[in-house]
Amino acid sequence: MKNYFFAISFLLFSYISFSQTVTVLDEIHLEPVENVLIFNETESVITNISGKVQINTFNIEKDIVFKHTSYKDLHLSYYELKELDFTVKLKESIFDINEVVVSASSWEQNKSEVPNRISVISKNTIKFSNSQTSADLLKLSGEVFIQKSQLGGGSPMIRGFSANRVLLVVDGVRMNNAIFRSGNLQNVISLDANSIESSEIIFGPGSVIYGSDALGGVMDFHTIRPRLSDTSKLKFSGKAMMRFSSANKEKTGHIDFNIASKKFASLTAITYSDYDDLIMGNHGNDSYVRPEYVDFIDGVDVILKNINGNVQKHSAYDQLNILQKFRFQPNKKWELNYGFYYSVTSDIPRYDRLIQYKDDELKYAEWYYGPQEWMMNSLKIKYTEKTIFFDNVRFISAYQDYTESRHDRKFRNEEIRSRTENVKILTNNLDFEKKINAKSFLFYGTDVYYNKIFSSGYISNISTGIESSTSSRYPDQSLYMSFSGYVSYKNNFNKKLTLNTGIRYNKVLAFADLDTVYFDFPFETINLNTSAVNGSFGLVYKPVTWQFSLNASSGFRAPNIDDLAKVFDSEPGNVVVPNDDLKPETAYNLDIGILKRFNDKVQIDGAIYYTYLDNALIRSDYTFNGADSILYDGEMSKVQAVVNADNAIIYGFQISLNAEIANFLSIKSNYNYTQGEDSKNNPLRHVAPSFGSTHLIFKKEKIKIDFFSEYNSEMPYEKLAESERSKPYMYAVNDNGDPYSPSWFTFNFNMSYQLNRNFRLHGGIENIFDQRYRPYSSGIIAPGRNFIFSVLVRI
User: Fold this and answer.
1) 194, 288, 344: which is closest to 783 by C-alpha?
2) Is 32 left (phi over 0), alpha (psi -120 to 50) or beta?
């Protein structure tokens, strides 16, 4: 009886002493880590949004394992855990083992089961990078090339595709609209880099899930989510950040805060950035220097000498972003999310036009984009219930209102020409997920996409203020819409082999009434009625430390209003006119990927790809009423139009290395090679030169340091597309007097220090050796030596 009493007392004492709450934090940022699996041989629990969990049912004699896809596994005994005062700090993993992605199917799934190449920019990477814009954030992947025509720019290039051939998606809603052009776009900067939680880039056609435009790839952005309280008490949390950069005297302020109960949460985020004229590097090609600029003094245009030729006069702008989200989760079955997104810039000077000369004088006194304004309201409803047809169903309805404008005035000309576009966009998506059995999954859905375009043009006299109408860029009140349905299937035959396949049908309609007041068009209306069927077939094979993937897929892009009906000057001496005889372009792609891990210390990951583009939509010489040149904006211009070329091919490879040199030191490197030409062996415009980056990363408790290099190979004159050769003002000149894009490289330094759980300091130096260089196809010169400093305060 005495022994029985002692046994009961010991067990009771063990339970009481072990009734503990464990807190799991990120080692560098000291932030709570949610969804950490904590387990031993018999028990398992998962941390909540505060990184906390009770482990009182665990056997204290068994080791405890901490596991998360973004962190290294940690094994601790109960006594080691007690010595740490039940607070555990996890080290970030350099590998993406079992990482969850949503871009491949619109539903969460293991990245290792997806045959597409997907690059994930994680929450921790975004925090550490402290990027100025979302375009700069995409560059963090090391696999996306960014072009900038002006400081307020950023056009992603993916595997030889860009602009309207790559798809932007934010929180499940496509941003591409009917006036996305083939030329470089800056729409991605409407997204606030400080409000993005993570991003995924899917390479190759994504038309089975996303429809038109996803030829080169999909950039899927996930903004910060409202977080529900894990207790019955109302919770408030937030953070504030201030950042300064020397190269453009950036002054950014950001604040976000979350108010939550167990069922309802509200998230508010506001960011304001002010950028001065960008300063280029001091060592490099002298032809990039800006020797003079135009100013308007006492009612007269005057060409002034630039005191410091490295200052890119008239490149400054500012931007405001607002994000408001509400989340309501009344029970485990239903979840409702509403989001309001708003972004507006100031006027953005188009730098590449402001440096053009005509007859030894600067051609333009003014050339700027008016405020780029984007507003979106989005409602997302998710219902979870195991039925014969689905386990999860999600409905997303979104309304976007987008406005952009262009304003230009030639030197000593009193008339400024202005053209304004407003696009109203409605999207509705209905997606289903069904687990057929333990190995098979079905994804299917439908969507409707509707655009209405309002376009106007006017000319204003800056001396008299008198306004008169002029031709618009697009036919006013044009319509563009699509209807589609898809089905996708995944089967995990065993732990080593996974099949992914899918098919999609898309119907696209467009209508436009051409304005014949300013141009005698040979036709008065444009009607597009077309359809496309796309498919994909992929296999993933994972024998032990290897992973092999094969993916064959097709994608399409239907001509939009920009392709069909615009009138504009593409570059000096050329004018683009409508073409009512266009068909969709179709991409057929083959991807082969190989991944190898060595002793959980080294990972090499690569992919080779080949894309055949049929009926490629390209800009080409054309005739207008039988004439190859017309008078446009006061000068004789060669006529061009978007046409269906015979075909084009794009091929290349991507390779990356991740290696842990020591417990606190790692290396990460990416390299990208792409080639492409049309049926006449002419180079394609958006095929970037070979580029890459290499990072040496030090991480120790509260400190993270990244010393890295970015580099580009030369783009010789022979590889420049014809449209690029016609813009010599943007390029260096070789020994033969021909334009080309020189190779370049930079060395950079980035560092963060977490003082405590509430304060973080960040500093860095970009372009340490102050190189003067211009990325391929960019109008503006890259920043010179740039000192960056920011401070973040968590509330």
Assistant:
1) 288
2) beta
Q: Is 686 helix (H, G, I), strand (E, B) or coil?
A: coil
What secondary structure letter does DSSP report for 689?
P
The 3-state DSSP class for residue 268 equals strand
What's the confidence (pLDDT) of residue 722?
87
The answer to whether the beta carbons of residues 359 and 341 sit under 8 Å apart is no
Q: How far apart are CA 600 and CA 578, in angstroms?
A: 57
Sequence-separated (6 or more) residues with CB below 8 Å from residue 186: 135, 148, 149, 150, 152, 153, 154, 155, 348, 369, 372
**Residue 13, pLDDT score:** 44
Do the beta carbons of residue 478 and residue 494 sit within 8 Å?
Answer: no
Q: What is the mean pLDDT of residues 82-95?
A: 88
Distance between CA atoms of residues 365 and 357, nearest Å: 11
Instruction: Give the C-alpha separation, 265 to 795, whole Å.
Output: 17
DSSP E strand boundaries for 112-232: 118-121, 145-147, 155-158, 161-162, 166-170, 173-174, 196-203, 217-223
pLDDT, tens only, 556-568:
999 999 999 887 6
CA distance 92 to 24: 13
Q: How far apart are CA 279 and CA 294, in angstroms?
A: 18
User: In this structure, what token pair is assigned to residue 584?
Assistant: 């969709």
Model's pTM, two decimal places? 0.93
d(CA 611, CA 589): 4
Contact present, 686 and 618 (Cβ < 8 Å): no
Using one digit for the tens of pLDDT, what is the confidence trace for 382-426?
999 999 999 999 999 999 999 999 999 999 999 999 999 999 999
SS3 30: coil
- Report how far apart the first and last C-alpha atoms of the chain are (Å, whole number): 56
Helix (DSSP H) and strand (DSSP E) numbers for the chain: 8, 55
Average pLDDT of the segment spanning 460-468 = 93
- The string of DSSP codes covering 328-364 is E-SSSSEEEEEEEEEEEE--EE-HHHHT-EETTEESE
Residue 115 DSSP code: -
Alpha carbon of 361 to those of 94, 120, 413, 447, 739: distances in Å? 53, 47, 13, 52, 20
List of residues 6+ apart from 440 with CB closer than 8 A: 489, 490, 491, 492
The pLDDT assigned to 637 comes to: 80
| Confidence (pLDDT) at 15 | 44
Q: Which amino acid, one-letter code, is at 71?
A: Y
Whether the predicted pLDDT of 579 surpasses 70: yes
The two beta strands, 87-90 and 21-26, are: parallel
* Least confident window among 16-20, 55-59, 440-444, 693-697: 16-20
Q: Is the dihedral of CA 245, 403, 325, 100 positive or negative?
A: negative
Percentage, residues of the chain above pLDDT 70:
96
Question: Of 136, 282, 123, whose CA–CA distance to 710 is shortest?
Answer: 136
Lowest mean pLDDT among 70-79, 707-716, 774-783: 70-79
- For 605-613, what is the mean pLDDT? 97
251-260: long-range contacts, CB 8 A cutoff, minimum separation 24: 252/132, 252/194, 252/790, 254/192, 254/194, 254/195, 256/194, 256/195, 256/224, 256/323, 257/795, 258/226, 258/227, 259/234, 259/235, 260/226, 260/227, 260/228, 260/229, 260/234, 260/235, 260/236
Q: Is residue 10 over pLDDT 60?
A: no
Residue partners of 388: CB distance under 8 A and separation at least 6: none
Q: d(Cα 568, Cα 471) in Å, to the nearest integer? A: 10
| DSSP states of 643-662 | EE-SEEEEEEEEEEEEEEEE
Give alpha helix (H) positions in 521-568.
Answer: 561-565
Confidence at residue 11, expressed as pLDDT on a 0 to 100 scale: 45
Contact predicate 183/124, CB 8 Å: no
Distance CA 348, CA 730 (A): 19
